[in-house]
Amino acid sequence: MKDSIIKVIRFIGFGFLEPLIRLISGEETKKNTKETFNKIGAPILSIFAFLLLWNIGANSLYNSLADSKIEKAREVGGDAEAERIKNIIISAKDKLDGQFIISDDIEDLKKLSEANIHAVALKNDKGTYDINYGLSSDEKKEVPVTLPSPKQTKNAFYTLWVDYKIVRADKKAFKEKTAKLNEQRVADGKNAIVYTGRPSFVDQVVTSLKTVFAGFLLALLIAVPIGIITGLSPTLRTSVNWIIQIFKPVSPVVWLLLVTMIVTTLLRNSEGDSSFIISFISVGLCSMWATLVNTAMGVASVDTDYINVAKVLKLGNFQKIFKVILPASLPLIFTGLRITLSVAWMVLIAIELLAQSPGLGSFVWEEFQNGANDSNAKIIVAMFIIGLIGFALDRIMLFIQNLISFEKETI
Amino acid sequence: MSVVKEHYKMEKFPSNDVMLDLENLKKVYPTPKGDYVVLENLDLQIRKEEFITIIGHSGCGKTTMLSMIAGLNPISDGKIKVLGSSIKGPGPDRGVIFQSPSLMPWLTTFENVMLGVKKAYPDATKKQKEDICKYYLHKVGMDSSLNKRASEISQGEQQRVGIARAFAIKPKVLLLDEPFGMLDSLTRGQLQDVLIDVWNKEKITAVMITHDVDEAIFLADRVVMMTSGPSAKIGDVLAIDFERPRSRKAILEHDDYYKYRKHLIDFLEH
């Protein structure tokens, strides 16, 4: 039982839980306590240390900006004005770091006037929420906007979550309202009316994931076959090497421009939005190089023992490639694919931002342009979400690699 | 029965009795300091259904010679003939068992054997091919591990599968490059028995490199001794006249055994 649990958690990449499970089952208490601390306790401590440093840094930035605001007020309106601004900033800070309340109780609204409330999401008649921020208009005007503290970021996360629920309910209502009309339109041969309201944060994440998968798939379909062919033939390898060496270091931005040139020319007569096509092709082209190089190298460096066996058995080309060369080079191909996926995710944000295609990149850019009180905090939330998704994507790749490859790797 | 010492160049066999014929074989590796001659003027005839073991010092070119016979290494000069016709690259008439088992770790033992069988019997039905694989895996005592991945079995077991794979393609000549060199002595003995057992039934020609003098005597009809490189050639050939099937115990108690052994060790120490 215990061993099979450990096997499973190792397989899905949660090997760090192993000593804890052994500890709970009472195995080698001393050794496993130490291991548990090393693998779980120490990372948690470092997370707290990180949050602490972040908090200190954010507060000192906030305070320095606040001080200069107060000084400015003193120059303009004297000590009384300075005192007024100081009080506003202090109470605003309390509210920014304060609670985020999700409730359907009207009494909670009243708490808004009290201190330490960031926002209240109140359930309304339509089944969605109204968000009321705790900041008064004075506070909104005077609050210093800088690097948000961890608590502010947490509140921004709640805001985005509630916002997602609002948009979701809105979409549902829209669908119900237009269901009949759409049926009629489809029957008449017209296009159905689609929801064109503002996308929620979760929608942006989903869009980004779609783009990155499309780009990754494109990279895989281009890079793996070309990598295999160039790996098999030294002549081809030397003849395409210059392309790889020259285009590999090209910046994502330049790829985007190149793809835009080509795609807009090709699609000049179509009506649809080409930004998705442009961004996923750019992502694919930026990220495919690692897979291309790794596949070619993997195929070219298959153990000579295996190649000799294939020669002695007189295997045909098909058998040789699919039964010997590909399985043998799979570990390297997968290493390439993992790098490709992480590069794809990394450049995606920049490309979405520039191509103005929907997704996390444009979310970050819009928030930055927006400049509301919690915009910066939302950007930090997006940063963490981007990081976590990138991490998860890598783990998924590792899982698939372990599933189909003969060599077991656990990094 | 006595120790027969024959100088190889003296001995020529009737051409219809010769399976493998090495004529004036030469191998040169170009190096920055000029050509390095590994083998030169190497002549050797091997009869049909004969078991030959080759001994010699490390680096004398035994493996080079074997891989040239297998067609994996180009010939610099001279000829290698199988049944009178020169070889061109590797072929299904020559099976090889490598020093490391060289099984594909991502395939099961069964699939490893099937890989060659598919190619060697293109006209057989699926059932026939499967039967061939199972037959040879049974012969080497691997029935119970048909569906285990090659990476999951021990090295001795892997080499058993290697033997099955080599025999299953029905080669005319079997080339073995120190196939048991990496195994412990107990496993080595078992695998020698397996090898001789299958070889007895199949009656094919076998050429095996070994470092083990006892193994060389126990398995061979003739032991071929190679001189040290560079320009290695055949130094001496020793015929082993024990009757087959041989039992290890009987051979160890046989008077001639120590004469043979002394002969080989004398050669190696000079």
Structure description:
The complex is a heterodimer of chains A (411) and B (270). Chain A has 14 helices and three strands. Chain A is mostly helical. Among the domains of chain A are: 82 residues, no CATH class; 204 residues, MetI-like (MetI-like fold, Orthogonal Bundle). In chain A, a hairpin with a 5-residue loop joins strand 2 and strand 3. The model of chain A has no long low-confidence stretch (mean pLDDT 85). With 270 residues, chain B is of the alpha/beta class. Chain B has a domain of 147 residues: Rossmann fold, CATH 3.40.50. In chain B, a hairpin with a 2-residue loop joins strand 5 and strand 6. In chain B, helix 2 crosses helix 3, helix 3 crosses helix 4 and helix 4 packs parallel to helix 5. The radius of gyration of chain B is 19 Å and the shape is globular. The chains are: A mainly alpha (411), B alpha/beta (270).
Summarize the topology.
The complex is a heterodimer of chains A (411) and B (270).
Chain A: H1 2-11, H2 18-24, H3 29-96, E1 99-103, H4 107-110, E2 117-123, E3 129-133, H5 137-142, H6 150-187, H7 201-232, H8 234-247, H9 252-266, H10 275-300, H11 304-312, H12 317-355, H13 360-370, H14 375-404
Parallel strand pairs in A: 1-2
Antiparallel strand pairs in A: 2-3
Helix pairs in contact in A: 2-3, 3-6, 6-14, 7-8, 7-10, 7-12, 7-13, 8-10, 9-10, 10-12, 12-13, 12-14, 13-14
Chain B: E1 4-6, E2 18-31, E3 34-47, E4 51-55, H1 62-70, E5 77-82, E6 85-86, E7 94-97, H2 109-120, H3 126-139, H4 155-168, E8 173-177, H5 185-202, E9 205-209, H6 213-219, E10 222-226, E11 234-239, H7 248-253, H8 255-268
Parallel strand pairs in B: 4-9, 4-10, 7-8, 8-9
Antiparallel strand pairs in B: 1-11, 2-3, 2-5, 5-6, 10-11
Helix pairs in contact in B: 2-3, 2-4, 3-4, 4-5
Task: Describe the structure concisely for a colleague.
Chain A is mostly helical and about 400 residues long.
Shape descriptor of chain A:
globular
Separation of the first and last Cα atoms of chain A: 25 Å
Q: Note the total helix count of chain A.
A: 14
Estimate what percentage of residues of chain B fall within beta strands.
25-35%
| Percentage beta strand of chain A | under 5%
Strand tally of chain A: 3
Largest sheet of chain A: 3 strands, mixed
Q: So, the CATH homologous superfamily of the domain at 201-404 in chain A?
A: MetI-like
Show unreliable segments of chain B: 1-8
Report Rg of chain B: 19 Å
Give start-end ranges of low-pLDDT stretches of chain A. none
> What is the subunit organization of this protein?
heterodimer
Second CATH tier, the architecture of the domain at 1-90 and 214-270 in chain B: 3-Layer(aba) Sandwich
